[in-house]
């Protein structure tokens, strides 16, 4: 049996709608490019759905594994404490599980974006746009 994968895109959240829209647009781009995955979006604070609400929205999708993926550049309190708590992750393994449709579904937790040539290239692209 092959896994049906869910991807939970996690943004910080903001009272400013545009900031949340950027995270949602990233999730939509991933969904468009990878229709074989079930993509959901949740936010840590100031916005809906919350991380927990987004996690529970996988109910009825048939996913067998969820990759929780923060759209943050670097680790901080939200990534090391808040999000793992919302997802009930084991602090040693950064993995957990949630019950969906009466089944246990494994959750794995991705690293933040970090430093990457793709991000550096995007920043340089923005510099070229304003020059």
Could you walk me through the main structural features you see in this protein, from its secondary elements to its overall organization?
The protein has a five-stranded mixed beta sheet. It is α/β, with parallel strands linked by helices. The relative contact order is 0.17. The radius of gyration is 15 Å and the shape is globular. The longest helix has 17 residues, at 17-33. It has helices at 17-33, 51-56, 77-86, 117-130, and strands at 5-11, 38-43, 65-70, 95-100, 103-109. A hairpin with a 2-residue loop joins strand 4 (95-100) and strand 5. The protein is built from four helices and five strands, in the order E-H-E-H-E-H-E-E-H.
* N-end to C-end Cα span: 52 Å
User: Which word captures the global form?
Assistant: globular
Sketch the topology as an H/E string, one letter per element: EHEHEHEEH
Low-confidence region ranges: none
Strand content: 15-25%
Residue-averaged pLDDT = 96
Number of helices: 4
* Strand elements, count: 5
Q: Spatial order of the strands in the main sheet?
A: 2-1-3-5-4
**Class from secondary-structure proportions:** alpha/beta
* Helix proportion range: 25-40%
Q: What is the alpha-carbon Rg in Å? A: 15 Å
Largest sheet: 5 strands, mixed
């Amino acid at each position: 049996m092959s896994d049906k994968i869910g991807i939970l895109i996690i943004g910080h959240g903001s009272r400013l709608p545009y900031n949340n829209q950027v995270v949602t647009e990233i999730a939509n781009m991933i969904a468009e490019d990878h229709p074989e995955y079930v993509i959901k979006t949740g936010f840590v604070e100031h916005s809906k759905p919350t991380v927990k609400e987004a996690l529970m929205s996988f109910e009825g999708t048939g996913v067998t594994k969820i990759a929780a993926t923060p759209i943050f550049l670097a680790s901080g309190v939200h990534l090391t404490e808040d999000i793992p708590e919302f997802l009930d992750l084991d602090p040693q393994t950064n993995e957990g599980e949630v019950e969906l449709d009466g089944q246990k579904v494994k959750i794995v937790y991705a690293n933040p974006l970090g430093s990457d040539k793709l991000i550096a290239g995007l920043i340089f692209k923005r510099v070229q746009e304003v020059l």
